[in-house]
What does this fold into?
Amino acid sequence: MNTHKCPTIEEFRIILKQHSLKATPQRLAVHEAMIELGHASADMVTETLTAKGKSKVTVASVYNILTHMAMLGIYDYRLSANNKMYFDVNTFKHIHLYDHENHVFKDVIDDDLVAIIESHMKRKRVKGYKIEGVDIQLIGRPTRKKYMM
It folds into this structure.
């Protein structure tokens, strides 16, 4: 089933248990921040936790938690043009819009387009490779509205 939601805290607890991991205060705090942020670097998650007075963790600890979750497939990750690792709490199939001015990712939900591209690629051969998946990223910059007086 294709849902367009990230795991809630309760679902996250169950996922951790399925991976034989404890639902530590740090992991839960990181996931709460990721639910709020959607796509975030370890620095961004740490800043969010610090601002909310949540569990005290270092950037290194947050990075380790995020990386571990990505290795288990609980989160995805993306490398930005400024060579910073961003983690994505949404692991369902979707398109990313990368704002290369502000170095942020936004989700674009277009199941029809994803299905068309996947169907097309199933019929194509790329010499020397077996295509295992499709990852679509659009690159853009914010539009600036000009107001007329």
Notes: Residues 23 and 55 are 13 Å apart (CA to CA). The domain at 9-140 is CATH 1.10.10.10 (Arc Repressor Mutant, subunit A). The chain has a mean pLDDT of 87.
